[in-house]
C-alpha cells in the first residue's frame, strides 16, 4: 500500500533536510514510488535592514527571506515489515508530518 511522508525546511538548511530524508530512508528501508517537491517564491523582507547570509565567505546581505522547501515522498514499506512495526520505525525518525491513506 502506498503511503506518503512530508518533509519541509528553509532553503538555508538544505543539507540538514537532505540528511534527514536519507536517514529516514535508511532506517525505514522504504521503497520509493515517487518524490516531488516545491520551493516557495522568495519574499522581500519587511525590515529596512537586509539580513546577513549564513555561511557566506565574505560580508554580504540579502533582502529576501529564505524560501520554504517542501518534499513529498510516496513510498511502500518492505514486505518483511508489517504495518505496526513500520509505524514504530517511522515514529523513531522524528517525522514532521505523516499522512497514511485510509483503506
Choose one word for the global shape. Answer: elongated
**Which blocks of ≥5 consecutive residues have pLDDT under 50?**
93-103
Order of helices and strands: EHEEEEEEHE
Helix content: 10-25%
Strand content: 35-45%
Number of helices: 2
How big is the Rg?
17 Å
Strand order in the largest sheet: 2-7-1-8
Quote the average pLDDT: 76
The largest β sheet comes out as: 4 strands, antiparallel
**Total beta strands:** 8
Distance between the termini: 9 Å
Oligomer: single chain
What's the gist of this structure?
The chain is α+β, with helices and mostly antiparallel strands. The chain is 23% helix and 36% strand.
What features would you describe in this structure?
This protein has two helices and eight strands, in the order βαββββββαβ. It has helices at residues 14-28, 83-91, and strands at 3-10, 31-39, 43-44, 51-52, 61-62, 64-65, 68-76, 97-99. It has a four-stranded antiparallel beta sheet, with helices on one face. The chain has a two-stranded antiparallel sheet with strand order 3-6. The radius of gyration is 17 Å and the shape is elongated.
Looking at this protein, list some descriptive labels.
103 residues; elongated
SSE layout and pairings?
Layout: E1 3-10, H1 14-28, E2 31-39, E3 43-44, E4 51-52, E5 61-62, E6 64-65, E7 68-76, H2 83-91, E8 97-99
Antiparallel strand pairs: 1-7, 1-8, 2-7, 3-6, 4-5
